[in-house]
Amino acid sequence: MTHETNHGFTCCPKCGSSSFLARDKGRSFKCEECQFHYYINSSAAVACLIINASGELLLTRRAFEPNKGMLDLPGGFVEPMESAEEAVIREIKEELNLRVTKMSYLVSYPNLYPYSNFVVPTIDLAYLCEVEGLDSLRPDDDVASIEFIRPEKIDPKALCANSMRQIIQFYLK
Ligand SMILES: [Zn+2]
């Protein structure tokens, strides 16, 4: 998979011209008619590491495509005008019905997220999170089920994205 796609653009979103051409290997697009210049940036996303009392990592199994059925870390896209920390709190509530009480930033890795037949470049920001308790844990939203696995026992091939493998490897170091 390459990031040099047309990002779904077949014409200029401002004037409709078909001369909306990729520059710098797809880093940006510029319209030859109205000069509108659009830059492709990474979408920010958060990935959360929650460890239980037995030292096992909470993993989610994806309910939907892309990568339906594969293991993932809880999290998701940061919404416009939201901080990454707010996204952590919101996603953990939405996906797991858990309340984050403490978090610390760990590391970030880039990823390519296929969606609606094009590829969204993301920057996945990893947070180590503590939660109020696990009693209220209830998978919801885009999560089919939950699994607790010791981080060193996780099969990298079962994870949905390279960035998730890299985050878990970083955590284990
Ligand atoms: Zn144009």
Task: Summarize this structure as a short list of keywords or feature phrases.
single chain, 173 residues, Nucleoside Triphosphate Pyrophosphohydrolase, 4-stranded mixed sheet, 10 strands, 39% strand, binds zinc ion
Number of helices: 2
Give the strand tally: 10
Query: What is the molecular shape?
Result: elongated
The low-pLDDT segments are none
Strands of the widest sheet, in order across it, are 7-4-9-8
CATH evolutionary superfamily of the largest domain: Nucleoside Triphosphate Pyrophosphohydrolase
Textual characterization of the structure:
By secondary structure, the chain is mostly beta strands. 14% of the residues lie in helices and 39% in strands. The protein is built from 2 helices and 10 strands. The strands form 3 sheets. The chain has a 4-stranded mixed beta sheet, sandwiched between helices. Strands 1-2-3 form a 3-stranded antiparallel beta sheet, with no helix packed on it. It has a 3-stranded antiparallel beta sheet with strand order 6-5-10, with no helix packed on it. β5 (57-62) and β6 form a beta hairpin. The chain is elongated and about 60 Å long. Bound molecules: zinc ion. Zinc ion binds at residues 12, 14-15, 17, 31, 33-34, 36.
